Amino acid sequence: MRWVAVGLFPLLIGGCGAKYKAKGPVITTYERAVNFPVHRPHEQLVYSGREPASSAPIIPLMAFGAAFDLDVVLMPNDGDFEQLEFARLNMPDRQLWLALETTEAGEQTVVANVDDIESIMPELPLRRVAVDNFTTTDLSTAETIDVSISYDNSRGSRVDAQLVGNPPLKAEKFRNGRTFNHSQNQLLTVLDISAQESLFKADVTVEGKGLGMRRIGGLVPARFVQQQAQGGLAIGTFQVVPNGPAAGGPSYGEVVVSVAGGGPVEEAPELDGETMVKMSVAQNFSTVKGCYLTRVEEEGADIAGDMTVGFTISEGVVTEVTIGEGSLEDDALTACITTAVEGWGFDTSVNGTASWPFSFVAPDADGSPADVILGEGTTELEGGDDDDLLEDLDDEIELGEEDMEDMEDMEDMADEGEDGVVDTKSLADGGPATIHNFSTVHKMPSGNEVTLKWLVSQKGDRVTAVQTTPLRTLKYDYRLVSDHYLELVSITVEQYGRATPVTAITFNPPLPDVRWPFNGRRTSDFVIDVNGQQNHGLGQVDVFWTETGPKLKVNPISPKWTEDRVMQTSIIYQRSGEANIAIERIGE
Questions:
Q1: What is the torsional sign of CA 90, 93, 97, 99?
Q2: Are the C-beta atoms of 419 and 221 separated by less than 8 Å?
Q3: Alpha-carbon distance 557 to 553, whole Å?
Q4: Is the pLDDT of residue 105 over 60?
Q5: Using CA atoms in the order 58, 62, 63, 65, what is the torsion angle rounded to 10 degrees?
Q6: Cα–Cα distance between 477 and 463 in angstroms, integer?
Q7: 56 with 226: CB under 8 angstroms?
Q8: Contact at 8 Å (CB) between 421 and 415?
Q9: Tens of pLDDT along 277-297?
Q10: Eight-state DSSP code of residue 171
Q11: Rounded to two decimals, what is the model's pTM?
């Protein structure tokens, strides 16, 4: 049955109703292809430190997504709420109706007949109220909306609603819907309104008194039904707790190539300690160069000269860094280089001291860029000739068969972690960093805590953290850089019964690994897709380190109504490897 009703959208074209009209994508697909190439790196990004602050991937931003197959939107002109929504959510075992109440200040509360209401999308920092007397009679068909709802609202008042009209079937040309001030202090939200219809009838009473509806353009009552999906980023307070080795490892998904004919691969010759130090210095030279180029960019072209850096190595770990007399004096540059060298790794057999000269060349008027020249260093290593030492030991110690078996058993035990899980090398060993599964413990508006368990897996240079409930799946994709650093590439939110992700957020360049200190302030662009519709939101994330730990500032750019929803993440690490994360709304 098709109800006779005044069409809503012709009226929205002009007059005050235009503010309700949805817009299109904020950038074109071509602009996206140009501005979001695959995995563009940060220029001159230099990490420092001996090991990550946590063995678990960090969730620096909390993404969310929620899609309703039916969403009845009412705008009362009186009563306690500026907007009242009744939404139907498809669950694996049932259809769930809920009420979403919005005050004039934009604060939103979810009301539903669910005992564990805080376990449903706990990443959404909305107040929740569970009521036993929330009842619905849904007689809707493919041609008609016909729903009756009764419940006690968040203020304790009895609400009865009768909703009748046509289903939202016709796809909208413009779908990027405005959120107004709703949840402006909790969420950075963009909408996809895929279809919408004026509702023929919406009789709502509160404690037996009829609720009048605002009129759009002075004519059409603000009552309509739509198919809506929303996604973006949320504020919140939670803790990341590492809790066990991750699935996969550095060799997971590895492609093994054998030589032609199946012959053995020749082993590389063993290197002496001095050669290994030279190779490591050459490999880490970019960190010193990054410090200098960043400093030149900050202070101009006046910084130039020589610096000799001395360092002590103990079992492959740099334990002390000194700056030689007569070196270029610049406190900021010295501090950056000292921190960078402290994070260098060498083979675990290396013990002793080394000294390396660097020459810093400022840019000149001819256009030659700033540069750093690596000099010839010197080493004083302990241990003498390792081969002679091993031969002497072989002469003095003879192991029997039982001794050899005991040593093999000990090596097997050392190679295996708890429950027989083979662990990866530690950074002190110069190998890949261990990556752990983890839990996030969320502080809800009620004061309750909700714990979510995440599974981490690795395939090649891609590390993925996944959190799944029966309703939705959060997935954070990182790229593994230099075997150590997890840079956040994208976030997706999938929902039960939906063919495409409700939310997909892509970062370019990927967000730096906030588990490690790094030089400078790094800026990444981000784009938000909702319900398969590309380019509904655009913004930037600034990432930097402070004395207390890393921070991220989210600066929305488009659509215009998101500009005032600036957010900031603060991360404080514990010695146990746990991370306390607070994401808050900042600014006006």
A1: negative
A2: no
A3: 13
A4: yes
A5: 130
A6: 6
A7: no
A8: no
A9: 887 787 778 788 888 888 888
A10: B
A11: 0.70
